[in-house]
Amino acid sequence: MKKLLVFILAAFIAMPAFSQINFGLKAGLSTTSITMEDLKTISSGGTDYTVEKLKGANFGFHGGAFVRVGISKLYIQPELLFTNRTNEYTVANLATVTDSIVKQKFNKLEIPLMIGLKFGPVRINAGPSAAMLINSPADLIKDPDFKTMYAKMTFGYQAGVGLDLFQKLTVDLRYEGSLTKYQNQIENLLGTKVALDDRPNAFLLSVGIMF
Predict the structure, then answer these.
(1) The pTM is what?
(2) Which of 35, 98, 208, 211 lies 20 to 30 Å from 196, alpha-carbon distance?
(3) Burial class (CB within 10 angstroms; exposed 0-12, middle 13-18, buried 19+) of 183
(4) Per-domain boundaries in the chain
(5) 151: exposed, middle or buried (Cβ count in 10 Å: 0-12, 13-18, 19+)
(6) 92-119 average pLDDT score
(7) Helix ranges (DSSP H) in the chain
(8) Count of CA atoms in the C-beta half-sphere (13 A) of 200
(9) Which pLDDT does position 183 carry in this prediction?
């Protein structure tokens, strides 16, 4: 939480140095996939499971507000967004030789801090992004011998291109990657923790209006 507060404070301290300020609202869709290269085997007592990511991408949505402050071609754009995403895994019970597809929905508050350049109506931008988990997703393994633990705060980056039209409408296409492990561990009754390095990668398309 301290890192998040410093992150927000730095953005607002920088604002007075810029001459042009625009407020806006935006919303859009994302397509997300996770990177987990190896199959995880998790054991507790006589129960063994394997966890593997499900191939393919899932769709989510995001929406919120932004402030764009700039001078000449340079601008800084902090954003506060609500995001919804889904991860999917194949979880296999090795004792019963059965497997199931488990979906986990994540609701987060995300704060990108984009730094960009404008070339007429076209923009390029990149910057760090902090995300705070605001819900409690279901356990990945539905068994009383296991508990799933999630990282409350994760950090990543975004980069992409944008287009401004009629000085009001703004469109952005970005790629998002993670710098830290995502929802990260499963713990068994013995206290053994197995890390799931399921870092998300996403393409985000959004449309906004500036005031």
Answers:
(1) 0.82
(2) 98
(3) buried
(4) 2-210
(5) middle
(6) 91
(7) 2-13
(8) 28
(9) 64
